[in-house]
Amino acid sequence: MKIGIKLCVLALLCCLFCFNGVVVGGRGRGRGRGSLPQPKTGSSAEFNVNSFGARGDGKTDDSKAFEDAWKAACGSTGTAKLLIPKATYLIGPVKFTGPCKNVESIIVQMQGELKAVTDLSKYPSDDWVEFGWVEGLTMIGSGTFDGQGASAWPSNKCPTNAKCKLLPTNVKFVSMTKTVVQGITSLNSKFFHIALVECKDFKGSGIKISAPGNSPNTDGIHVERSTDVYISQSVIGTGDDCISIGQGNSHITVTGVTCGPGHGISVGSLGKYPDEKDVNGLVVRDCTISGTMNGIRIKTWANSPASSAARNMTFENIVMNNVANPIIIDQTYCPFTSCASMAPSRVKLSDISFKNIRGTSSSPVAVTLECSKGSPCQNINLQDVHLDLSSSGTLAKSSCHNVQAKYSGTQIPPPCA
Ligand SMILES: *[C@@H]1O[C@H](CO)[C@@H](O)[C@H](O)[C@H]1NC(C)=O
């Protein structure tokens, strides 16, 4: 009996192997398994959005076909592949939601170009494409998420008003576990390009992100309340932060990322809301940042309503090209006079290392360590920092408050006295 089952499974695996590449019927039903128990392992089915009625003419709203294809993929067994072929699809707000109980993994094969509907009244929330509550999703392909943000940017009041309405994020991942995102492009998002909220075990690589340097709040990749996130080998040029690490994150690694234009790699802003969780364990390594407002910035609000902490962060082997503030800790953040008072920030910063940071600063102050008077920074280390002014002549400067940093190796600009 046992041997029988084993043979059966073997035969099935062999079968799948032999027919690998054959397109399995659109809706994944009626595959003639008869009354045999459906195997959870080894089976696979492909769900092509075109088989669910997507037109891909760039003019017809294909949202429903995408959601129907997702529902079928999510409701299947084994490995499910959602195929978005090479074509241009006009898409309104769509949610790809799990849990997908019987699938082992979902592959989103992203070959097409998705264009976001431009009419803002069609968006009930601040999402365009959202993936949520799925375990084991892989999104791979050379496809594009084009937010068509240019017409929306003028209606974004967030740069001047703290109580602004948020425009839709291009691609949001919410409460996802074991996610891989590889090769995709995000263009001209209305708001953030990619956002991770409460994700666990996320690997992003080969991601290309592009929007004009003056587009508002078009952060490249925003990460919040997430754990074990690994972002590598990606190119991000946008109007706001290249990568922003918000509150509640732990074990975040960023390597081999190229940034610019934009605001650079940012931790924060932290300390705006009362219920924020700590940030613990960030490594940013082997990155190149060019023509941005900031290089590495850690930013916390003045007058923060509660205390929190950000600790254990290492920034290593970073090349800065013509960056206005290559290294900046700013704990007095309070844009457009939106805080009730300038009471010191209650975000505690500690165990932060900057190692081998080289290149040029476009402003005279290349290193700013502006820590909180209420909770001074602790254990800040600078090792081998060499930042010249882009326009030659004088030497770059450092500026420090409420911190006694430790210095080793090369130090240009010279350390704070
Ligand atoms: C510091 O961060 C690193 C990298 O995320 C992590 O491996 C390590 O466990 C953290 N250390 C502490 C004390 O949390």
From TrEMBL:
Q: Which GO terms describe its biological process?
A: carbohydrate metabolic process; cell wall organization
Q: Which InterPro entries match?
A: Glyco_hydro_28, PbH1, Pectin_lyas_fold, Pectin_lyase_fold/virulence
Give positions of region: Disordered.
30-58
Q: Where in the cell is it found?
A: Secreted, Cell wall
Which Gene3D superfamilies does the record associate with it? Single-stranded right-handed beta-helix, Pectin lyase-like
The keyword Hydrolase appears for this protein: yes
User: Spans of biased composition, class Polar residues?
Assistant: 38-51
Major place of residence: secreted
Per the UniProt record, one Pfam family is Glyco_hydro_28
Q: According to its UniProt record, which residues of this chain constitute the active site?
A: 263
Instruction: Give start-end of the signal peptide.
Output: 1-25
An example of a GO molecular function for this protein is: polygalacturonase activity
Listed A to Z, the keywords are:
Cell wall, Cell wall biogenesis/degradation, Glycosidase, Hydrolase, Secreted, Signal
Is Hydrolase there in the keyword field?
Answer: yes
Return the similarity comment: Belongs to the glycosyl hydrolase 28 family.
Query: Could you identify this protein by its name?
Result: Uncharacterized protein
Species, as recorded: Tetracentron sinense
